[in-house]
Amino acid sequence: MSSTKDVEISCRAFVKLQLHLAKYPHCAVNGLLLARQFKKENKVLEIVDVIPLFHQCLQLLPMLEIALAHVDAHCHVNDLWIAGYYEAAEHLNASTVTSLFAEKIADKILENNTGCRLVMVDNKKVATPESLCFYDKISGKWQKQAQDKIRFEAGCFETLQDLLEHRVHKDLVDFDNHLCDISLHWLNHPVNHLIVM
Amino acid sequence: MAVSWEEARDKLRELRDSNVRDGESVVDLGERLVRKYSSKLGDELWLVCEQVFIAALDVDRDDVADMCLEKLSSNFPKSSRVMKLQGMMLESQGCADEAEELYKTILAQDPTNAAVRKRLIALSKWRNWKNPGATIKMLTEYLEVFMADNDAWLELADLYIAQMDYDRAAYCMEELILSNSFNHLYHQRYAEIKYSKGGKENKELARQYFAQAVKLSNNCNMRALYGLLMTCTSLCGKVSQSEDSKNKQYATWAAKMIAEKYNNTWVQDKDVSLDGKKNVTPSKDVPQLMASVQQSLSLLNLQDGVA
Amino acid sequence: MSHPLKKVAIIVGLACIVHAGFSAAQHRSFVRLTEQEFSSLPLDIVVQSILGLFLASYGILMVSGDFKNIQVNADMKEKSFETVGNRFAFCTFEHRGKALYSRQ
Question: Which family does it belong to (chain A) (predicted)?
Answer without folding.
Answer: Belongs to the EMC8/EMC9 family.
